[in-house]
Amino acid sequence: VLAGRDLTVFMAGARPATDATATESPLPPPGVFK
After folding, report:
1. Which domain of life is it from (predicted)?
2. Is residue 15's pLDDT more than 90?
């Protein structure tokens, strides 16, 4: 678990993922579940 400066460096300015910007997952390649 990171906190403080270590967490800030790890995130590198990434924005949090939210439901407002969610998109559907891509379909898996054919035959992947066979």
Report:
1. Bacteria
2. no
Amino acid letter for position 22: A
CA dist., res. 28 & res. 26, Å (int): 6
- Residue 10: which H helix or E strand, with range? helix 4-11
Rounded CA-CA distance 24/18 in Å is 13
What is the DSSP track for 1-34?
---HHHHHHHHTTPPPP-GGG--PPPPPPTTTT-
For the CA atoms of the chain, what is the radius of gyration?
16
- Give this prediction's pTM: 0.39
Letter for the amino acid at 12?
A: A
